[in-house]
Each structure stands twice: as structure tokens, then as C-alpha cells.
Amino acid sequence: MKKLKVIELFAGVGGFRLGLENTGNYEVVWSNQWEPSTKTQHASMVYEARFGGKNHCNTDISEVKTTDIPHADILVGGFPCQDYSVATTLQNSRGLIGKKGVLWWSIHRILSEKTTPPKYLFLENVDRLLKSPSTQRGRDFAIMLKSLNDLGYAVEWRVINAADYGMPQRRRRIFFLGYHKTTPSYKQLKKADKKAWMTQKGTMASAFPVNDSLEHYTTFALTDDLVHLSEHFNKGEKLSPFANSGAFIDGQVFTAKTTPSYHGVRTVLGDILQNGKVTQDFFVPADEYPKWAYLKGAKKEVRKSKSGFEYNYSEGAMIFPDALDNASRTIITGEGGRSPSRFKHVVQTSKGLRRLTPIELERLNMFPDNHTQLEGISDTKRAFFMGNALVVGVVEQIGKTLFAKIND
Q1: How many CA atoms lie within 13 A of 299 on its CB side?
Q2: Domain tally, the chain
Q3: SS3 of residue 338 by DSSP
Q4: Alpha-carbon gap, residue 124 to 103, rounded angstroms
Q5: Are residues 299 and 366 in the same domain?
Q6: Active-site residue 81, yes or no?
């Protein structure tokens, strides 16, 4: 069976590519990585060092001509979570333009301008997408679904926490697949009982099994144009209508809450540690223990803002040091550096408390050891990459299942 050709956008250090290439069924024919706020393009440097510079583009995607992007079977990417609202414009003959700089509209533009658009989409985002913005819960996701519908795609989505399926990190992300109306997958979804699709028949349910019972199953139409949705969707409501699983086809949403079903092996934080190989600079100096303990502990105190306003501040305690017999907490971009922090991981070892190494952070995202090691790239920057990355094992499992379904 021939490999599916892939366009990889917002590539970072290549987590999507690793997951797909691990299956042996995908070939990346063009990739793009651009970090707008930095002069040195560190992530792109790592990407090129690992995968080569051929067909890799380190330019702002909004400035890349669609004709410069080769044809492919599938477009993938973990795009930044932003405000997706739409405005009307007179200059634009379509009458629609997304907010300037919002990268969702770069995906939209590529799909709409391609003479033969990709048959499949495989995208990732933070699960907050399902309920943002706070003033119109779920509006951003509704805009995305409707804009894909207008371009001829059906969508299925699922919020997946990697640790629920035995992976070493509690990282919850939304993954969604788009099927163009010219594909058998689209026709299968159209005909399928949507409840069965969410629990058994769909790509997501096949890749990451769930229990048969669905909670809060609802169905509703998204028929308004994008401008109307942008201004009016779910206004004044406290909750988003989108649950953690769902499908969208022909303007109709089907959504419900599913619960994971997994009985396999589990990898925990203790399994990935490099004990005995860690240099002294990762160990917390004994005189800093109280500072770490304070930041990780419960607080109820009066604080003062810069303007002099006093307010009551409270937060709960975090497990400190981190539990070794469970999957790790989510890695965030501020994980690196020596300074004490509430959010950095700290583990207890026979030699004392220490922070996690870049290799350990890579393992928590299921990257190969030293994937991000490169001259000129600091440990702090390597930690930042992993805070932005996805869990490779999730992409691999969905990619493997999608390929099998396409070739079934």
C-alpha cells in the first residue's frame, strides 16, 4: 500500500511527523514552522537537524503562496489556540475574513485555494477550544466546524488524555479528523448511526476505545453563515454545547461525553527517569527547599496589586515532590530553568530533590532521547519545546487507525 503524502503545518520540533512516520504509512512532502516572536528560529533548526531541510519552509505561513505548497493526501498540524472570530469585509469578494494573524484562517485559505484539496485533515489543539471564548462558549469550535463544512469536509473529534491510555503524561488535547466529501470515510460517516460512530465505528473510537454508554448526547444544526455564528453563537449561555466527543456532517452536530476504556500497561513518571545519569545542576539546593514547598503548598493570603488594591488570594496544594507511581502532570512551556516554581516537576531521588532533565521531558511526550539536543539550544529552550509539543504516541495511534480505515 502506498504511503499517504502529508503537509505538516505548525510543525514545532516534529511531533506529528514522528508519530505518523512511526507507523510507516506516511511521507511528509512539505512542512512549515515559523515562530513569530523570535529572531532565532530554534524549533525550525531542530526540525531541520532531525528531518533535513528539503521541502521544509521557515516562513510565516500567512505569507506562503498556496501554489508553493505541493499536493498531498492529508494536512496535519497542531495550530495555536487563538480567537477565531470572523469579520465582514467589502474588499474580500467572499465577504469573509478571519482575524488578522489567526492561523486557523491560514489552514482555511490553503484548503479553499487548492485545486485538489487534501482528502483528510488531522489537527490538534488545547481542549479549551471546545468552550472558548468565555463570552460565547463553543463559538470558536463552531466557526471551525462550519468553515470546514463549507469547504466540503465532515469532522469527527475527541478530547484525549494520553495518560488514560497508558502513556506517561496527563496531557489532555482535542484531536480532530476531517474527511472530504469525495472520500469513502465521508460516506461511511454520513450513513452511520452517530452514537455507534462515537463509541465503536469511528476512527477515534477504534484508536482509543471508550465505554459504550454516552452521557449528554445532543444533536443540533449549524446552518448560519460564519459572520452570524461569530456574532451570535451561544450568546449568554454558561456552557458550551460541545462535549468531549462528536461528529459534524452536512451542517449537523452530534456530540456526547464519552469515557475511556483501557486495560493495558501503564507507564508512570518513575519509569522514565534517568536516575544515576543526572548532573548536579538539576538538583535543588537544600536552602531552596522551603521556597519550593511554599510555592507548591496551599495558600490563603492577602495580596496587593501594583495599583495598591488588596485582595484575598487562595490556591490548593500540589503533590510535592511529584508522585513517581502515576503519569506525570502536564508539561508546560515554563518547565525549564532553575528558579523555584509551582508548576515545574520535582522528583525525590536518593541524592535529594531534583528537576526533570530535557531527556526525561522528551520521554514524557514519547519523543526519542535527545531529539531536541542541538548546539546553541539551551536546556530551558528544550523544556519550552516539550511544553508546546504533543504526545507522539497519540498521533501514532490515530495515524495507524486512520490509515487502516482508509485502506479497508
Answers
A1: 14
A2: 2
A3: coil
A4: 13
A5: yes
A6: yes
Q: Which residues contact 35 (CB under 8 A, 6 or more apart)?
A: 41, 42, 43, 44
Quick check: helix, strand or coil at residue 121?
A: strand
Does residue 227 fall inside a structural domain?
A: yes
Closest CA to 125 of 157, 79, 179, 178: 79
Amino acid residing at 21: E
Domain region containing 298: 269-374
- State the amino acid at position 75 in one-letter form: L
> How does pLDDT run across 104-160, given as a tens digit for each residue?
889 999 999 999 999 999 999 999 999 999 899 999 999 999 999 999 999 999 999
Residue 288: inside a domain, yes or no? yes
According to DSSP, the β-strands at 252-257 and 4-9 are: unpaired
| Whether residue 38 sits in one domain with residue 66 | yes
- If residue 352 lies in a helix (H) or strand (E), which one and from where to where? strand 352-355
Rounded to whole angstroms, how far apart are CA atoms 56 and 47? 9
Q: Is 286 exposed, middle or buried (0-12, 13-18, 19+ CB in 10 A)?
A: exposed
Q: Report whether 146 contacts 229 (CB < 8 A).
A: yes
pTM: 0.95
Residue among 27, 80, 81, 342 flagged as catalytic: 81
Q: What is the mean pLDDT of the chain?
A: 94
